[in-house]
Design a protein that fits this description.
Length: about 50
């Protein structure tokens, strides 16, 4: 089983790919913003965890 840190990193990488894809495909502002916020939340969790 993955450690909490590795699991969080995997989630961050996945969210980054989703955000980049939505930008590359020129999706709507709302979708891009939602994806950006989701990535920001995960990055904040990573920082607050002290990794």
């Amino acid at each position: 089983m993955e450690s909490a840190k590795e699991e969080l990193i995997t989630k961050i990488e996945s969210a980054r790919l989703i955000l980049n894809k939505s930008i590359d495909e020129k999706r709507g502002y709302e979708e891009i913003y939602k994806n950006s916020v989701e990535l920001d939340v995960l990055i904040e969790q990573y920082i607050l965890s002290g990794y």
